[in-house]
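[step 3/7] inverse_fold.run input=structure_tokens len=214
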């Protein structure tokens, strides 16, 4: 495929998640209003009956539960290959992890090099891992936020694409802070995907450079 053909093609997104699917919904809505020029071709979940699957089904988007057993915290082995096979069957260009509660292993990253994205509710590299908004609050941080990044073999360690800050208020608790962070998550995830659709990202080592609009 030539560069010109790539720029004219519609970005095909595969979404993988484990929960309610609020970030997936933000991607669907961005596509609906024309802010994201892309198509979601498949939604996958490791949780049967997950909300993220229901959001897709309601929009007539192909959606499937694929068990990740026998593993509890990672996507590996035959299950990982099942995910790769289905994503390829649906011609996925980029994968958006949206609340996927498993560690992605190297085979999936190799199948989609520099094409697996994640959104994390913290200003990485601060507060990686689970419940990062609560980590920030407990630590006494004054600023929290969220990060869209490429996925690598570490935990929340891949090159950063976009970040958005959220001030921590004196009367915040974990719930109120997380809710405000999610508002920003829902804004920047479609933005990051549109940068890929526009072929505006360049990775050099740990740095992601964003080209000006053509």
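[step 3/7] decode complete -> sequence:
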């Amino acid at each position: 495929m030539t560069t010109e053909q790539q720029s004219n093609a519609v970005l095909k997104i595969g979404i993988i998640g484990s929960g309610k699917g609020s970030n997936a919904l933000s991607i669907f809505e961005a596509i609906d209003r024309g802010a994201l020029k892309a198509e979601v071709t498949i939604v996958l979940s490791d949780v049967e009956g997950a909300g993220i699957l229901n959001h897709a089904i309601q929009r007539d988007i192909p959606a499937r539960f694929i068990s990740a057993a026998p593993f509890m915290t990672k996507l590996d082995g035959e299950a990982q290959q099942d995910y790769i096979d289905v994503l390829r069957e649906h011609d996925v260009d980029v994968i958006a992890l949206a609340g996927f509660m498993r560690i992605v292993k190297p085979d999936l990253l190799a199948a989609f090099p520099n094409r697996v994205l994640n959104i994390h509710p913290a200003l990485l590299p601060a507060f990686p891992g689970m419940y990062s908004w609560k980590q920030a609050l407990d630590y006494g941080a004054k600023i929290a936020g969220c990060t869209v990044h490429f996925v690598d073999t570490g935990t929340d360690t891949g090159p950063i694409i976009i970040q958005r800050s959220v001030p921590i208020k004196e009367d915040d608790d974990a719930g109120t802070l997380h809710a405000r962070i999610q508002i920003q998550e829902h804004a920047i995830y479609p933005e990051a995907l549109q940068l890929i659709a526009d072929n505006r990202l360049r990775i050099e080592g740990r740095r992601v450079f964003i080209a000006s609009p053509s």
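[step 4/7] annotate
Residues 1-7 have pLDDT under 50 and may be disordered.
Residues 3-203 form a domain with the Rossmann fold fold (CATH 3.40.50.170).
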